[in-house]
Amino acid sequence: MQTVLFNETIFGPIHSRRLGTSLGVNLMPRDGKVCSFDCLYCEAGYNAQGAGHAGLPSRQEVKELLEAKLAGMKANGDRLDVITFSGNGEPTIHPEFPAIIDDVIELRDKYYPDVKISVLTNSTMIHKPEVAAALRKIDNNILKLDSAVEDTMRALDRPGAKSFTVESAIRDLKQFSGTGIIQTMLTRGEHDGHRIDNTTPAEIQALIDAYNEIRPASIMIYSIDRRTPEQSLEKVPRSELESIASQIRSTTSLPVSVA
After folding, report:
1. For burial by CB atoms within 10 Å, which of 45, 76, 135, 228 has the most?
2. What is the pLDDT of residue 166?
3. Any idea which architecture 10-258 has in CATH?
């Protein structure tokens, strides 16, 4: 079974194809996976591998580890573009997420004031006012919307809560109109004998309709780049992604980047 990607709370820096030189913050266990989605394409593997034994890092632990890393990088003259909340699951489900955001902003301002702070979120917790308020404080609030077709979203992202629907996601995403960045993973393949494809004309039109309703600051589309737990998934060619991006731009007048 494919296992977790990150064995540290603070990892990197690594080169992100979307964000540049990125220092990662993993608020999930170092030895397990905890997520409100169980995506077929997740590079950290399926949730079935378990939560491990380390538990969630505390706010104080995150702050101390991040300060030590930033201080060391600053002393060495290392370049940094962004501090990114990512890792072995959904960062916003950490109970101290809002306070940790405040700590990271404080440390960023102390050591690398020009660096951006990004959060990659699957949008399942943005209905909580304290989570939404924390996300408004950062530079890059990157919110997932992989499909605006309910069956496809449930098959590809496999949310743990039945209450999470495309309708509820779009409703909650609208609160970040003009500020949020919508991130869409495009792929196709099969799982448990069922075809999954969010690149069809009907799927792209549904996404366009959703983007027009949400009106984010910008949109990121991308495809798989590493090994995925569902091995039948295909990487969508760059030329096709560019074509889809052009269609989205022309019908929404929104900025669209391709990674």
Report:
1. 135
2. 98
3. Alpha-Beta Barrel (3.20)
What's the CA gap between 254 and 259, in Å, rounded? 16
What are φ and ψ of residue 124, in 5° steps?
-75, -20
DSSP, residue by residue, the chain: ----S--SSEEEEEEETTTEEEEEEE-S-TTS-B-S---TT-TT--GGG---SS-PPPHHHHHHHHHHHHHHHHHHT----EEEEESSB-GGGSTTHHHHHHHHHHHHHHH-TT-EEEEEE-SSSTTSHHHHHHHTTSSEEEEE---SSHHHHHHHH--S-TT--HHHHHHHHGGGTTT-EEEEE-EEEEETTEEEES-SHHHHHHHHHHHHHH--SEEEEE---S--SSTT-EEPPHHHHHHHHHHHHHHH---EEE-
Q: What's the pLDDT at 193?
A: 93
The residue with tokens 């792209």 is 204
Specify which residues 196 forms β-bridges with.
Answer: 189
Question: Per-residue pLDDT tens for 122-146?
Answer: 999 999 999 999 999 999 999 999 9
Query: Tens digits of per-residue pLDDT, 58-101?
Result: 999 999 999 999 999 999 999 999 999 999 999 999 999 999 99
Pair of tokens at residue 115: 């660096």
Write down the pLDDT at residue 20.
82
Query: In the chain, what are the domain boundaries?
Result: 10-258
Strand 218-222 versus strand 256-258 pairing type: parallel
